[in-house]
Amino acid sequence: MESALAANQFLALSAILFVIGVAGVLTRRNVIVVMMSIELMLNAGNLVFITFSHYLNDMSGHVFVFMVMAVAAAEAAVGLAIALAMFKNRETVDVDEVNLMKG
Length: 103
What we know:
Elements (H helix, E strand, L loop, with lengths): L6 H21 L3 H25 L4 H31 L13
Helix pairs in contact: 1-2, 2-3
């Protein structure tokens, strides 16, 4: 049974999500929002993997998505720990106001 949506529609949605993520990374200064934008970009990539995996009848895309999800979970945990440490030390999570190179 063929899906109601064509592959190009999934790829267009993925491209839109990726562009929104890039815009969030480039325009926002809050560390939490930047991390959420990176997660959105990773999920856009996951959608591409799932789309090609479905339309090519190959399960390797699904396996790769699980690997990306595991790396994204680790990235989120480390990123939130860094954001918490930034807030404890500098009382801000704004990227512009925190200079980590200072002693």
